[in-house]
Design goal:
Blueprint lengths: L1 H8 L3 E7 L2 E7 L5 H13 L7 H16 L6 H13 L6 H9 L4
Antiparallel strand pairs: 1-2
Helix pairs in contact: 3-5
Length: 107
Amino acid sequence: EPLLYDAQIAGLVFQLNSSARGIRLFFGGYDDRLVDFARAVMGALVAFDPSVDAARFSAQCDVLGRELESFTSQQPFQQAGYWTGLATARPDFSLQQLKEALANVKI
């Protein structure tokens, strides 16, 4: 996290997003150290070991599980957006498939 704090002060940004097609990494900012920053972040991602902070990993899995379980309490228009995306985007995973995958996650 100190790496990201220092980068933010220097005007550099990093985003990691997931989608049905995989993950998306974005690096931006106007600084000649952008390449070095990208290399450092990529190195940290490659070296990531969830077993080092098992409690945090477990907590994130719990949050995801609660989000998946609370789907039915969302507004109908939000649910319609989900079903539309599921019907039109390929490949995509249903909530049931995500729940089953989450149940099998282990460190």
